[in-house]
């Protein structure tokens, strides 16, 4: 039997770092790997972190990893200002995510987890570039036909991050349940349920209430 292994994209970001921390603190996967432009902060005997600044190489690296990942968490994301414009953000938040999902399917990954965003399917979402990016990735992941595909649609992502939001913004909404630790835990909890055959469907979307349920209210170490 193949040993379950997880790969995390976006492991230095707000949600991805918490997915990684959660994976390292639980026994869900005995082997955990990351690919990122910067090495993640956590260290562990079961973590293998690969630093690769050229994101165009990430997808092709999946098939040659040892052990080959059975589950991939994709929490890659940026902002228009950090990327340097809308087209640059699209290349990361949409194109890179779709490319990695396709490469994961070709490599035989069975479970794919994508961290999307709340409101992507709203009435006016078609006019919002950010929503169109996320919708495009969601549709691509669904169309690839993974054994299990899990999409999380959290609200505002709060807490510690490499580039913090304005302090007043963090203070105003800091007590809400939309916290990246809860999101990270919910992602791992959803994979656990899928592994146990308890996912409600092969393509499972977790909205904010589901994220709070699995990442806080029903979370177990």
How would you explain this protein's 3D organization?
The chain has 221 residues and is of the alpha/beta class. The chain is built from 8 helices and 7 strands, in the order βαββαβααβαβααβα. The chain has a 7-stranded parallel beta sheet, with helices on both faces. Helix 5 (129-144) links the parallel strand 5 and strand 6 (148-152). Helix 1 (16-25) crosses helix 7 and helix 7 (180-195) packs across helix 8 (208-217). It is globular. The model is unreliable at 159-164 (pLDDT under 50).
Which runs of at least 5 residues are low in confidence (pLDDT < 50)? Answer: 159-164
Secondary-structure element series:
EHEEHEHHEHEHHEH
Q: Judging from the principal axes of the Cα atoms, what is the shape? A: globular
Termini Cα gap: 25 Å
Tell me about the largest β-sheet.
7 strands, parallel
The largest sheet has its strands arranged as: 3-2-1-4-5-6-7
Q: In oligomeric terms, what are we looking at?
A: single chain
Number of strands: 7
Overall helicity: 25-40%
Write the topology of this structure:
Elements: E1 5-9, H1 16-25, E2 31-36, E3 47-51, H2 58-61, E4 71-74, H3 80-83, H4 86-106, E5 111-115, H5 129-144, E6 148-152, H6 167-173, H7 180-195, E7 203-206, H8 208-217
Parallel strand pairs: 1-2, 1-4, 2-3, 4-5, 5-6, 6-7
Helix pairs in contact: 1-7, 4-5, 7-8
């Amino acid at each position: 039997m193949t040993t379950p292994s997880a790969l995390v994209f976006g492991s230095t970001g707000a949600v991805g770092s918490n997915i990684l921390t959660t994976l390292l603190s639980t026994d869900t996967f005995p082997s955990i790997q990351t690919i990122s432009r910067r090495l993640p902060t956590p260290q562990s005997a079961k973590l293998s972190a690969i630093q690769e600044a050229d994101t165009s190489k990430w997808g092709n690296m999946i098939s040659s990893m040892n052990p080959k990942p059975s589950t991939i968490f994709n929490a890659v994301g940026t902002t228009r200002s950090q990327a340097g414009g809308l087209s640059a953000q699209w290349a990361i938040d949409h194109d890179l995510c779709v490319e990695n999902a396709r490469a994961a399917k070709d490599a035989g990954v069975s479970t794919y987890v994508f961290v999307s965003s709340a409101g992507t399917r709203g009435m006016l979402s078609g006019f919002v570039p950010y929503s169109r990016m996320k919708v495009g990735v969601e549709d691509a992941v669904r169309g690839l036909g993974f054994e299990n595909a899990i999409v999380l649609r959290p609200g505002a992502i709060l807490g510690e991050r490499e580039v913090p939001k304005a302090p007043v913004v963090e203070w105003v909404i800091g007590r809400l349940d939309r916290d990246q630790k809860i999101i990270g835990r919910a992602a791992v909890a959803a994979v656990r349920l899928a592994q146990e055959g308890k996912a409600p469907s092969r393509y499972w979307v977790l909205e904010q209430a589901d994220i709070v349920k699995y990442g806080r209210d029903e979370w177990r170490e």
